[in-house]
Amino acid sequence: MKNQCMIVDDNAMVRETTALLIKHIAGCQVRCCAGAEEALLAFEQEPDAYGCVITDFNMPGMNGLQLGGLLRAIAPEVKMLLVTGNPGAVDDGELNENGFHALLPKPFNMSLLRDAVRSFFPAAGNDVPAAVSRGSFEGSFSFHEKSNVIAFAAA
User: Is 35 left (phi over 0), alpha (psi -120 to 50) or beta?
Assistant: First the structure.
């Protein structure tokens, strides 16, 4: 059915905030996983449930690129987005080799996230809340580790 998006991030606040954004952008169900190993187990149990996977690159244990390669072997058609605070650490060859469709740098730019997710769920464009579709929800999110706060900066 592929109507779910999987969010994989070891930071709970980033994971949950991203899930809320995806729910608003795409109107789809979201499954959150705290790490690559948890995500792999969930994906193996229901590989046909996921239309996209959004994963952080830098996580304890298996990183996001490694996870992408394993998920691609299970379901080559799944759309994947890699998120990283250090986009220079990953080259296009590694992204393609591991099945990723896009790279999203942290802090999130709302228009890039929205465009990527809408390309994964094309029907979502008509179901996006008015605040998002009008552009009043434009900007970027950043997570401040020391204060444990997510900040939104309007564009």
Answer: beta
Query: CA 134, CA 9: separation in Å to the nearest integer?
Result: 29
Q: What is the pLDDT of residues 2-31, one digit of tens each?
A: 779 999 999 999 899 889 888 888 888 999
Q: Distance between CA atoms of 40 and 31, rounded to whole angstroms?
A: 12
- State the Cα–Cα distance between residues 122 and 139, nearest whole angstrom: 22
For the record, the structure tokens of 22 come out as: 């995806």
Handedness of CA 150, 31, 119, 27 (dihedral sign): negative
Domain ranges within the chain, ordered by starting residue: 4-154
Q: Which stretch of DSSP H or E encloses residue 28?
A: none
Percent of the chain with pLDDT over 70: 77
d(CA 77, CA 89): 25
d(CA 85, CA 48) in angstroms, rounded, equals 30
Residue predicted with more confidence, 1 or 2: 2
Superfamily of domain 4-154: Response regulator (3.40.50.2300)
pTM: 0.80
What does the DSSP 8-state code read for residue 59? -
